[in-house]
Each structure stands twice: as structure tokens, then as C-alpha cells.
Amino acid sequence: MNPTNFSPPSQFTHPSIIFSSPPSNGYSLPPLLLPLFLLATSATTHHPPLPFCEAPKFHNGATCSSSPTTTTATIHIAMTLDANYLRGTAAAVLSILQHSTCPENVIFHFVWVKNNPLILSIIKSTFPYLNFNLYRLKTARVRALISKSIRQALDQPLNYARIYLADMLPEEVKRLIYLDSDLVMVDDVSKLWRTDLKEKVLAAPQYCHANFTSYFTDTFWSIPELSRTFEGRTPCYFNTGVMVMDLEKWRRWGFSERVERWMVVQKKRRIYHLGSLPPFLLVLAGEIEAVDHRWNQHGLGGDNVEGRCRGLHPGSISLVHWSGKGKPWLRLDSRRPCSVDYLWAPYDLYRSSKHSLEE
């Protein structure tokens, strides 16, 4: 399925899916100016050459299904598309394809807030063989529910898109991996895809040693009618940047509305400080299937305020995640990288990038 000339079959037609046509070639621009460049030129019909190198074409291995569109063979991955994180998205996609045994069986589902022809052109020119669909997030619904958090980036509607994936994607997509844009995968994604959810709606690495109470305010813990939501379960922290989701169960049991109800409470009573994570914890903590920690070595972006350097956790690594304020492409470009940022650099497709351990 080549997106350049792909015509969606009738069973996948969906009002929020957008397919557009590509423009031209390669371009070089200072990376910190790239988001402004994208916004300034997105409305024009003739674009300058594009700023990312073309990724190679990845082929299925001999053990892959000869019919990649079958339900069992296809791997569905959802990510968001945003000018500020586009460089991270490109690196994440490259890492997934590069380490996949069956890359032609992977379909990406990208969510954005508006039709941006230049962003679409960059995706198509960077990954001309990529199987992908595009969906527009209806921001009016979520904007009315968003409360101000400790970092502006956490307040953007796209940060909440993961809540509505089951509503946006076609019903034929029954299972999904959701991934943030600030990570790279260094293992075969099919291993994560085969996670046994055991009747759970969601699977993710969880951390029961974390101070769970710190994710909510004193107001929340002082009101029994709110804090009693965790009675009968052992709640543990999990990071929502890497999740395996059963979309059928999510739709059937109305999880989008369950998460939204806690966002309404937040607007009235200020029961947490972060963005979309706490309402996920309120609904699902203690109710998910645990995945090995190697699938989310998170927190490498530091805390949400200063973004100081952090090292890797002990143990095996299948996915490296720069959650937190600090992003590897910004730290590398500023010549003030953390040591873990060099794990991200090999997947950077930005044309002007020249990172080395000697810098």
C-alpha cells in the first residue's frame, strides 16, 4: 500500500481520515526553525525541497506472512504528527522499521490536529514506501476538558489523542500499539505486538515501586468520594507513551468517556498537576497487563520542569524513551547533549545533523 497513490477500500473509509498528494525533494534548515518553517509554508501550493533524508525501503524477512493485510500478520501502530516533534517521529518510525522482521506488515496511523500539506509531504518523501493513514483529532471536544498543567507541551490537544484512538480508527482495527514521538525502538516490534492482554484493555510496563500518591494533589486524597476510586485494586504507575491497546474492549466499555469524566473533575477541583497521564491512571492503574520494563526505558528527557540528564535503568532494553522536558534532537543541536542522546542520533534523518561522540 503506497500512500502516494493509495485509494482506501470502502471498509476503511472514515470521515476523519485524510489522504493528500505529495510535492517535491530535499531541503536544509536550522532545526530550531523547522517548526516555524512548516507553519509558515503549510498553506502554500509550491513548497521548497524538504529537510529530511529518504529512508531506505525495508523488506519482509522469509518468515513473514505472504499476505501482510491479514488480521494476524498486520501490526497497527498509532503516533501523533506535530511540527515540533516531526524530527522525533521520523526517527521513531525509522527505528521501528529497521528492527522489524516484517516491516511491510506494519501500518502506521498518524493523528494530527489539522491538514498540513508540508508535514504530509515530509512523511511521504522521507518514507515513500510507508503504509500509513491520517486522522484528524477534533480538538473542540478535548480543548474544553484540558486543564493547565506544569508544562505547556502537556496541555496541547494532541497530547490527549491517545484517549480517542478507538473512536478515530476504523472498527476493523481491533488491536493497536500507541507510541510517543520521542522514542526509538531497538527490538522487533512484533514481540510487543504479541503481548497477551489476558482480557485486559491495555498492557504497558508498570512501576509499582514509584510513589503513586505524588501524581495527585492533597485535594484528591482528602476527598473520600474521589480517592475511593482505587479501592479493590493495587494501583501502579505506568507511562502512557508505550501502550498495547484492545480497541474493541475500549469501545465496548466506553473508556474514552471514563477518562473524560476525570478530566471534568480536574477542571472543578484540581486533583492533579500533569496532563493526560493522571486520568489514565485514575481509570486503569491496577487494571492493566504488565509488560517487561525493557519495552519502555522512559524518563530520559529528565523531569517535566528542567529536563536534566538521566541515565539508563539497569536491565535489557527494547525501547528507549525521552519522556520529560529534554528532547535528544534539541540537546544534540545545542551541543549540550546527555550521554543517552547518542542512542537516538543514529536514527536522525534530518539532513543537517552531524552528531559524534567527539562533539
Helix and strand arrangement:
Blueprint: H1 34-41, E1 75-80, H2 86-99, E2 106-112, H3 117-126, E3 132-136, H4 139-143, H5 165-168, E4 175-179, E5 183-185, H6 189-193, E6 202-204, E7 206-207, H7 218-222, H8 224-227, E8 237-238, E9 242-246, H9 247-252, H10 255-269, H11 277-284, E10 289-290, E11 319-321, H12 328-333
Parallel strand pairs: 1-2, 1-4, 2-3, 6-10
Antiparallel strand pairs: 4-9, 5-11, 6-9, 7-8
Helix pairs in contact: 10-11
InterPro entries: Glyco_trans_8 (IPR002495), Glycosyltrans_8_dom-fam (IPR050748), Nucleotide-diphossugar_trans (IPR029044)
Protein name: Hexosyltransferase
Subcellular location: Endomembrane system
List its traits.
about 350 residues, two-stranded antiparallel sheet, globular, disordered N terminus, membrane
Order of helices and strands: HEHEHEHHEEHEEHHEEHHHEEH
Number of E-type strands = 11
Q: Give the fraction of residues assigned to helices.
A: 25-40%
What is the rounded Rg? 20 Å
How large a portion of the residues is in β-strands, by DSSP E? 5-15%
Terminal-residue CA separation: 41 Å
Shape: globular
Mean pLDDT: 83
Q: Pairing-aware structural class of the strands and helices?
A: alpha/beta
Tally of individual helices: 12
**What about the largest sheet?**
7 strands, mixed
Order of strands across the biggest sheet? 3-2-1-4-9-6-10
- Model regions low in confidence, pLDDT < 50 over at least 5 residues: 1-30, 39-45
Can you put this structure into words, describing what you see?
This protein is of the alpha/beta class and 359 residues long. It has helices at residues 34-41, 86-99, 117-126, 139-143, 165-168, 189-193, 218-222, 224-227, 247-252, 255-269, 277-284, 328-333; strands at 75-80, 106-112, 132-136, 175-179, 183-185, 202-204, 206-207, 237-238, 242-246, 289-290, 319-321. It has a 7-stranded mixed sheet. Strands 5-11 form a two-stranded antiparallel sheet. The protein has a two-stranded antiparallel ribbon with strand order 7-8. Helix 10 packs across helix 11. It is globular. The N and C termini lie far apart (41 Å). The relative contact order is 0.15. Residues 1-30 and 39-45 have low confidence and may be disordered.
